[in-house]
């Protein structure tokens, strides 16, 4: 008989406990039945865990499979906090339950007025501590006090955050062209807002807020916008009662925090004036940077939802414990009275690390929208209304109502740290856990390139209502980070001094190699095919460029690059005349079959110039189709023959999703059709006699114009992993030419 600590919850047991040969030796994974065994052999807290699992937040459907489910525990020391985190194998690590202590009495009632006695538990895990309760309403006095205290602290103590604030008279501030003036002359009167033109000469005296939110386009309830037809009415003023709920709530926040002006994009930009839209969207970065604070409506799906009148998920009291009292005494002093509570883990906003954002992540609606990424990253101060709590973010601090503390590597922090947006003086690149990318054999790699690639990966997974906004919605952020690319020109989402590496992107694929069902090409022209912006869906970058695993050699070089901009904003929209010329080997290949891997379809490729070549896995960027064009044969004397030749290739299909072809069997149309392969780089791993060759799959742009013979568009990418000593590299690289990609 030994004095033991519980193997599952790690509570000190109050008496001798026999060693059970069937007991779990570790808390790595367990079932409810393991908790029951532990409880029967002396651990009272394991019974509390059973209650938390069975009655905390599980619905009836989940309870049916409760006995078969495996659970994991993150103990307070492991989690770096003072609560115990419990989640099932079906849930991601960021989901689950938080179990913690709270001051209280011996009674609790899940329904008001119906109290029930709580069980007294004499043992609980080491490190379990007291956590503040999150108010049930975003409009509670505690919530307003939380916001006001952090705003006051930032204004009085954070010098960097006040650099662009109106209180700093030495700083030149760029104002938006228009602001909404909030008119509330007396308590209880109807509140009006007026659209007013700003005076640049009075910028130092203007204190305004900005709003970041999801518009939520619907045919039946469109958002309120300023247009040329209602501009006069907006200048005269409208009652806030006529505004969508999200906008009304933003006005309420401004009044509570003594701010009388606010910038809201839908109302401060004339939406049907293309020139005004282009001018104001180009200034988006400075608008959010210079705002006194940004109100982030993170939890609302559309502008017609309220973020102030939502009800938050509460907590459940499941036991009472004694803190500080001896285990062998029945004396319970007033300051020792605590209850054990359980609540759903708050897993959004700055509680979610950037690498934890997956397709099924429980992120707030605001973090699914593309425009809001730069709004969040560039704001000096943000008051974030999530569905479960209010969070505070500024250049010097973060805080939250749940009292458990934010994580250190959110996407906002990653962007700001990667490009030093908070300091604006020197580039400080966090190299931990990041790969170093070689750009060219004869150049020094940019330290900012990996940061840009991860930024693009995050941005590309977010949704846009209008495909054409793919580049404009990132333009303010691109403009802000451009100084860290050594005066590189910006080419439709790529940087001129890093063009080859910028070409090494792929449409998001699952583990089988199949592209995401949501990957598609823009229905209207957005960007040249060599740019990631031409694909609607998430993109990633080639890990084969990691220099630690081999010797990397570029097989292509940039001969020319021509970008024609659609507006005066060089970071915004581009026109279809844009192209890049690569000097590189060009090989003819064909798609030979559609493989089936784990119920998903993959493409294989063969080379025409290499005898008995193996097949290699190809990945298309989106739906493709078979295209043909007839050209007349020409005699040597220049006259035209009567015969014609049909040229066949594969092209991008812009009117569907990739799943349409897999489901409808259209893929049979593009087998054995000649397309082209351009290798970009090779990575030779001498120790393993292996070489990886990574390049682009191209379809020909068929045209009657003679100069179009070497014009192509990207349709996918190909990665070859071959035996260095066996592969015929000479045949692959012998046909070098200039390839123009539109």
TrEMBL record:
InterPro entries: HET. Residues 208-375 form the Heterokaryon incompatibility domain. This is Heterokaryon incompatibility protein-domain-containing protein. It comes from Rhypophila decipiens.
